[in-house]
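Case 270 in the screening queue. Each case pairs one protein sequence with one candidate compound; here the compound is zinc ion. For every case the pipeline is the same: read the inputs, emit a complex structure as tokens, and attach any notable structural observations.

Predict complex for case 270.
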Amino acid sequence: MDEQLVALAESLVAADGVSVLTGAGVSNASGVPTFRGDGGIWNDGFDPADFHVDRFESDPAGFWTDRHELHERMFGEVTGPNDAHRALARLEELGVLDVVVTQNTDGLHREAGTNRLVELHGDAARSVCVACGESVSTEAALDDVRAGTAPPTCPTVGCEGHLKPDVVLYGEDLSAAAYGSARRMARESDVFLVVGSSLTVAPASTLPEEAAARGELAVFDVAETAKDHLADYLVRGDATETLPALVEAVQARLPNEVTVGDAGGTAQEA
Ligand SMILES: [Zn+2]
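Case 270 output:
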């Protein structure tokens, strides 16, 4: 086994606070395309400007028509959580991992069984009314768009506010609460893992620096990232293989076999 994984597993078992930041690389194996790079959505006929908050405000009908296409492209082929999501849920179940902070909006960590989750960029499966804050399923909003009613509006009687996907659009700030807890996790963790993020998009790109200033930083990626130079542990490879291997190494180092239920699945079941 990779020496870095063994050393990291020992550190995780000894640590008090452990959190992880995940990016698009974690969901790629589940059929969610990345935004950038070869095969990325922005190189595939979609224009980021169409999904800017200014577009939503000035042309909500056009925004939702384009958002429908984007949603189908992003989530139409999703096969559910993969071994990387399941491995992180398992680490939480084992009492080793405290929080997953994700840049992804696909909901796959929750589906895999992760309970303590910070979704920095929101949840694409939900939409909210900009007038009253009512939350509805994006699928219901998209059904309206498919039926020719764009923009979709709030189901609350007498409201009629426009619905907006519950994600951070271009031109919008991250939720202060979500970003605040992500920063706190980065600053207070003994070990901070980053998985499948190129770490180039601010402000999430600054979290590894805050983490490395306080504790240890582990970077998991198939390729180089912008923060490799800060990493105490550098694990190259597909997260669907490296994270289950980490779980195995952690389990081998736990003092006693931890008895837990099957909820959320385990890497072995995959
Ligand atoms: Zn409303």
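Case 270 observations:
- The chain has a mean pLDDT of 91.
- Residues 60-75 form the longest helix (16 residues).
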